[in-house]
Amino acid sequence: MADIAVFASGTGTNFKAIHRDLTSDSRHRVSLLISDRKNSGALKFASENGIPAEFISYSNRSRQDAEQEILKYLAGSDVRLIVLAGFMKLLSPLIINAYPDRIINIHPSLLPRHPGTRGIEQSWESGDDYLGISIHYVDEGMDTGRIILQQAFHRSEVTSLEEAEKHIHQLEHYWYPRTIRSLLDSHENENGD
Fold first, then answer.
1. d(Cα 158, Cα 153) in Å, to the nearest integer?
2. At what angle do helices 119-126 and 161-191 cross, to 10 degrees?
3. Which helix (H) or strand (E) holds 181?
4. Rounded distance, CA 51 to CA 157, Å?
5. At 78, is the pLDDT very low, low, confident or very high (cuts 50, 70, 90)?
6. Is there a binding annotation on residue 149?
7. Residue 91 annotated as part of some ligand binding site
8. How far is 16 from 189, CA to CA, in rounded Å?
9. pLDDT reading at 156 higher than 70
10. What is the spatial distance between Cα 11 and Cα 15, in angstroms, rounded to a whole number?
11. Which amino acids are annotated catalytic?
């Protein structure tokens, strides 16, 4: 069994999909949620489902100070993987070096095209033939880490930005939990857990 920590800033739809998938499997679990927004949907969901959660404010402090606080909470748990699920902060080397090749993110475009916070809109506006998602390891750059998995669909399958966004979220909610479980299972197999 392996634990993960989820970092989320927003409504928590990917967090919910991850929790649902891991709960149905029961070999792995979400042991901690970190959110940088006090009223996030992710924090509310964690509270309603008995998942330990912490609000870490980045306001009026350095990123380093906030990340030192995050590391204190992580130190109190046996987290195998940190999963970013709509976490709208760029992590510094402080956390990345503490968890090398153990932090992953999902992005709503086919990286390296359209990194950053407007991946869906930029993919749509670009006229790219294919849109989709990228699951990748986190490094110090903005969506520049080594890609683990990509899933795509042809733009002809949707007729509007709203439809494209819905389709991308369906891909995220299906593939992200499965990729997380696969990484955790691989770690167990390698280590004989």
1. 9
2. 120
3. helix 161-191
4. 37
5. confident
6. no
7. yes
8. 26
9. yes
10. 9
11. 107
